[in-house]
Amino acid sequence: MKRILLALTFAAVLSGCGSSVKLDEVAVEDKTGTLVGAQGATAGAAGSGAAGGAAGRGALASQGVAPVDVTKPGSNAAVQQGPRIVYFEYDSFVIKPEFQSLIETHARQLRADPVRKAVVEGHTDETGGREYNLALGQKRAEAVRRALGLLGVTDAQVEAVSYGKEKPAVQGSDEAALAQNRRAEINFR
Amino acid sequence: MFPNPFRHVFVTLRLLATLCLLAASVPASAQLRIEVSGVGLTQLPIAIAPFRGQESAPQNIASIVQADLERSGQFRGTDLVPVNLDELARPELTAWRQKGADSLVVGSVTRLADGRFDVRFRLWDLTRGQDLGGQSYAVTQADLRQSAHRIADFVYEKLTGDKGIFSTRIAYVTKIAQRYNLWIADADGENAQSALASPEPIISPAWSPLGSQLAYVSFESRKPVVYVHEIATGKRRLLANFRGSNSAPAWSPDGRTLAVTLSRDGGSQLYLIDAQGGEPRRLSQSSSIDTEPMFSPDGKNIYFVSDRGGSPQIYSMASTGGSVQRLTFTGSYNISPSISPDGKSLAYISRVNGAFRLHLMELASGNAVAITDTSLDESPSFAPNGRLIIYATAAQGRQSLTTTTLDGRVKTRLAGASGEIREPDWGPLQQQ
Fold first, then answer.
1. In 3-state terms, what secondary structure has residue B159?
2. A52, A61, A136: residue with CB nearest B430
3. Which end of chain B is more exposed for a tag (fewer CB within 10 A), N or C?
């Protein structure tokens, strides 16, 4: 609690830096670039000071950034039985037969408790772009959602979302690590 | 001297100021450093004299200006520079020309009575013996770097005819331990300020055309959701929080519309959504992945990535929808399109023999070349003058940001002190 209070205080101080101190200062400040006096340049070559000097204008735009911290307390771990991770082959969205019983276990729990909601989170390995992997992870999540649907779970109960490559289960770039990260997790909420 | 209550307020303010300084030193440790790793060919030699009164200022104006100009790949700072010259002096133009410089920057920094700094400079063309003009700025200590970037912009524009981009800003994301931060920094990577801190991933920041807002994807609600974030106030609004995943925001050039990738109707598909929010309009209709939209500079087309042909490739379509044209044909993995401000070039990431490399395609001819030799390039983004591209890459196992000229010859690594640095997006030219 003490730590949270301290964090909140610090956050408040931070926002103080961002808005009241920095921004106000910037707002009232005259940062218009003005012309350097031509007197020194009149001695300059070919009397071109005026032409060159004409460009001598420019305002510095506000550089203020107000920081935001969205850290909040961790949430519930719902009661959920059995393994809940389906693993996939490279570049594949096909649910292997060995995961059928896992999906049946969760389908049974969801059918028995129609108000229970579940989220299927798709994940990929670290290979490739972030946004494209997000779309690949979505395909995996939707494959599991469809499999649950075939077993009688309503669409309204299950949301398929993707984390792409952002949340690997294990660190590392060897094939064993990559295989652990190509997955869809069924999480009750 | 002061009545007690006032004194108390003063002490509190001082404490606040001290804490602010402490907070400001946090990003300082994550600051980016310039490491020039390439050699350019036709570079303009320029002498930048130490600014008179430099010792009174905490930032070295001349070296910031020189680093900016050299990062462009179009300039080379000369070793020999004049001393004891400022913007009022009449330099010996011929003498400095003979020492190998085509142009000369002289200036001064003066501390004002109110604590601000008066920064002045003048640019000389040594080959034609011309005074190309100068400027002065009265700035706070915090804006000294910005004034140096303004000087570099002035010099760059005078000598190349193109707009300078040194006073623009970049956005990027760091992951340090399990903390994610969205940063706004100067174009040289310095002066980073955190816009958003989160325990969950942040990806795909995208500057609004006027540079006052960022759209991005945040996982803070344990799914990807698109926010629009007002930078100066920290005010955020949910732009796309539909069932499923919401990602890949891209602004239309007029700032009124964003293209996003949504999975609310199943699969990852492109939609247009009003910048103020509301009901999205579906743009693509395919049973494949369609994602990473990006508007052409005239707003008429949208470039995007689709695996409709069996592998991810870059396509374009009218921003009103309709027929689709494939742009990449070489390689089995082409993603992350970024269009140059003149609409003529396409930067993207292509996988070649297992290496993900930044490529540049001339759209008219379809000719494409790799402009890096690294293997984990990501997220290219053009500078608003189209002369540099910023991207994320990994070297020696560390993620960092790099800028490159379009010919790949001059690269500058903006190397972070620690953690992973990724997802750069180059902001627009500052509004005058």
1. helix
2. A61
3. N
